[in-house]
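Hi W., the zinc ion complex you wanted:
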Amino acid sequence: MLFYSPCTIFVKDCKNSLREGIHGMLKYQIPTWMQKCYKGVTWRKNTNRKVIYLTFDDGCVPEVTPQVLTILRDKGVKATFFCVGDNVRKYPELFEQIKAEGHRVGNHTHNHLKGINTPLKMYLDNVAEANQLIGSTLFRPPYGKMTFQQKRKLQREYEIVMWDILTNDFDAATSTTELIQQTKRHTRNGSVIVFHDSLKAAERMLHTLPTLIDWWEEQGYAFETL
Ligand SMILES: [Zn+2]
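Structure:
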């Protein structure tokens, strides 16, 4: 998931000229006024409780997902995994393990398609193909990119979940120190936080996840599934 992708959606649909100015702001968190441009989508849970929602995109993969499950098990944390259908097809036992350990799963298309480059029917068919394996009412578009037509169709069947905080764990240019600082800075009640159980993100994600979980617990946050 590219950190500038939501910028592409919103700026295209709100105002093209704002793109450069808001680029930095968008790296970790989409401003509330921009989130409202995209109605009916979950960015963050509206709650007064100290609760946050950890999510992991792009799995399940045997090199990374089991390590995430071990960390979450050791820390007593439940999370939501937005899986790629083709990975579920390849690693069905790992997918079953995610569910057996009490985590929730969501649909992230079958082939990690970029919505804005994909015709409507092809996109919807790909989501449906994934859901034959995943069986979830949650959907998150890869790269945060989908057309409004795709969104409207999918909203009939799914809760579409974006994010409140993107950790940028996939981005080699992001240091673990920055990732931790910025994620702490943006955490608030109801935050939906995105990590990736992918090869690309593994090093930064596995390094920062335990530290952040400890910090969130110190701050009094509870962890729930979506
Ligand atoms: Zn993704």
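Strands lie at 51-57, 80-83, 104-107, 138-139, 159-160, 165-166, 192-196, 222-223.

W.
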